Amino acid sequence: MSPAYTYSYAYPDYSYSRPNYAVAGTLLGALAGGIIGHNVHRQGWEGAGIGAAAGLVLGGVAESRARARERDLQSAPSVSYSVPDAQTINDAPTVPAAPRIQSAPAYAPAGSMTSANSLFGR
To answer: pLDDT per residue over 10-69, tens digit each?
Structure first.
């Protein structure tokens, strides 16, 4: 028996120009490091160098992951789904209803902590 409907979906080809994360990380790291270094004992150039190095490392990791994700998306197969006939969906067995559970009484007798609980809205 073949399915009544077959749906197929192939990933669309979106072409875009994304930024290079290594370059952006280096520039932003140098800027942030320069500002922080200037505010700490007026060592702006030293802070910019440290920030640029840290930004290059973190941006390089982000760039590597972005390129791997792009490679995975390019090699991803198309996805297809099959929907069975409507008659086969209604053949599921019926489940009996769950037994009723008696609820607790609305009024609970006063305990030793009733006045303390009323202070906290319980």
So the answer is: 666 666 788 899 999 999 999 999 999 999 989 999 999 999 999 999 999 999 999 999
Helix (H) or strand (E) holding 12: none
Does some domain include residue 119? no
Instruction: Note down the domain range covering 25.
Output: 1-84
Q: What is the DSSP code (8-state) at residue 110? A: -
Helix (H, G, I), strand (E, B) or coil at 80: strand
Q: Which residues fall within 8 angstroms of residue 16, CB to CB, at 6 or more apart?
A: none
Q: Measured in whole angstroms, how far is the alpha carbon of residue 58 from the centre of its chain?
A: 20
Cα separation of 40 and 47, whole Å?
9
Residue 75 structure tokens: 């090699």
What are the backbone dihedrals phi and psi of residue 17, each rounded to the nearest 5 degrees, phi first? -110, 105
Q: Tell me the pTM.
A: 0.49
Q: How many domains does the chain have?
A: 1
Q: Distances from the Cα of 8 to the Cαs of 60, 73, 82, in angstroms?
A: 37, 17, 9
Q: ∠ CA(62), CA(67), CA(78), 5° rounding?
A: 130
